[in-house]
Amino acid sequence: RQLLKTRLEDDQRDYLETIANSANSLLVIINDILDFSKLDAGAMVLEHVPFPLRDTINEVLTLLAPSAYDKKLEFSLHLAPDTPDDLIADPTRIKQVLINLVGNAIKFTEKGSVTVEIKVIERNSNEVSLQAKVIDTGIGIQPQQQETLFAAFGQADSSITRRYGGTGLGLIISQKLALEMKGDISLISEVNQGSTLIFTFRCKLHSIPLS
Predict the structure, then answer these.
(1) Is 100 in contact with 170 (CB distance < 8 Å)?
(2) Average pLDDT, the chain
(3) What does the DSSP assignment read for 119-154?
């Protein structure tokens, strides 16, 4: 990164960018394997800290919006008005799951839209259960291949790995994290019609407004 800030010839810059991209890809794989190992061993400890939900969601969308816009996709968020903002949970892991689900939706959608819908599905005086739907108009997945998406190192088929890359760990890590948050991840999909991934998770309500 420091070298890329210096004066370079075109070939040198091209080589350095290739090295940087390869290093970033390797880092993602290493982090996925570490997370998977921790979750598989029951060693993942989630934080329980106050956080503003809307800011957390906006961080995810701000991070991924350029990828959607580069592909000329319609990218939108629908947040139910009664969704509470001041919550207690692990915002880093919530973002990790949403980044994975929304990132996949963008990656596997060549035209059309990616939509994120968030609403309350259950609430009491102390806790709230939330549902985040990630809806895309992408390639979709055949019914017999959907089960492999939640298997370690699984992809819908080998051509997916060749074309789009990835370890196949992202969804199983996301599902395990959702289970740790007393929720789950499920999938509705049709070939060439798109997919909907449904992420549910539970948070405690924070009694003191954060803003």
Answers:
(1) yes
(2) 86
(3) EEEEE-SSEEEEEEEEEE-S----HHHHGGGGSTT-
